[in-house]
Amino acid sequence: MKLKDVGLKRLTTGVIIFGIIIGLTAPALELYNFLSRSNRVVVAAEVSLLAFFLAQALIIENGKKWKYVILVGSPVLLAEIFARIFGLYQKIPSFGYFGHFWIGIALTYALIVIYKKRLKFIILFNAGVAFLWELAEIIQDKIFASITPLWLIDTYWDGLLDITLTIVGTLVGYYLIKRYYKK
Q1: Cα separation of 73 and 81, whole Å?
Q2: Cα distance between residue 82 and residue 44, in whole Å
Q3: Contact criterion met (CB below 8 Å) for 159 and 96
Q4: Can you give the pTM of this predicted structure?
């Protein structure tokens, strides 16, 4: 394996770990956002992550693979930033479905292009990530039940739908990548 590919894998692993840390601190950020009536901290973190992605695309020697990963993953991050700035989650309750579907595509792309994983692993990994994410949302709702706005409370049905959308995105992404991606 080429040194630049090893660096790309390490960087991608670092970004995934960073995402997990952000995910684990999300309840505290949501509490801050609710109490301060501001999304500035979350938006700043997401803009920083997007800037980090773009900088890495310019820095990495084998930038072609990474640039594709960024192009596939950026719509979720951009949608999240605009949703928080313009309050789209309140105005359009089903707006989050786009993110769950697209994250299935983005994770599939990264797992195929960077980690060279097969479909069975990808489906299990993406379903596991979606399940853990929904579990975290439900736990967050239980912990902050008294302050969580009604439009933000997740139900078990909503969680099942989100997991299903992630898996559908995974299958669509797998089909598109296998059909159109040239190594």
Answers
A1: 13
A2: 12
A3: no
A4: 0.71
User: What single string gives the DSSP state of each residue in 96-117?
Assistant: HHHHHHHHHHHHHHHHHHTT--
DSSP string, 14-60: HHHHHHHHHHHHHHHHHHHHHHHT--HHHHHHHHHHHHHHHHHHHH-
| DSSP conformation class of 148 | S
Domain range annotation of the chain: 3-180
- Read off the DSSP letter of residue 1: -
Distance in angstroms (rounded) separating the CA atoms of residues 30 and 173: 30
* Terminal C-alpha separation, the chain: 15
Residue with the larger pLDDT of the pair 59 and 93? 93
Q: 116: alpha, beta or left, given left = phi > 0 and alpha = psi -120 to 50?
A: left
Mean pLDDT value of segment 13-36: 65
